[in-house]
Amino acid sequence: QINKDLYRRINYYLMFGIYGYLLFIAEWWSGSSMIIYCDEELKQRIEKKDPEENAIILMNHHYELDWLYCWMVADRVGMVGNCRSFIKDSLKYLPILGWAGNFNDDLYIKRNLEKDKNRM
Prior knowledge:
Blueprint: H1 4-29, H2 40-48, H3 66-76, E1 86-88, H4 97-103, E2 107-109, H5 113-116
Parallel strand pairs: 1-2
């Protein structure tokens, strides 16, 4: 039997490696930056990289890189390796990221409630 805690700990670092590579490209190579506007309590938690709680971020894709911005926010609080997503089903075949999502417990949806409600 597989130890779930050990699997998730190892998977955290593997996902951090993959997502971190994309964050490197997005931030360093492209020269982009992110400014987060928030209250003082959240600012202190971000600086300590101590999220203290879980969060759900809902995004409606207006741009192709919204998912990358979400990972940038997660990286600021030290949680990029723990990101989970609802993703269009066809993306599970995407090399590297699609395959990694399978190991990361991402949920692939077909955008049909009858087909997807058992998965969600």
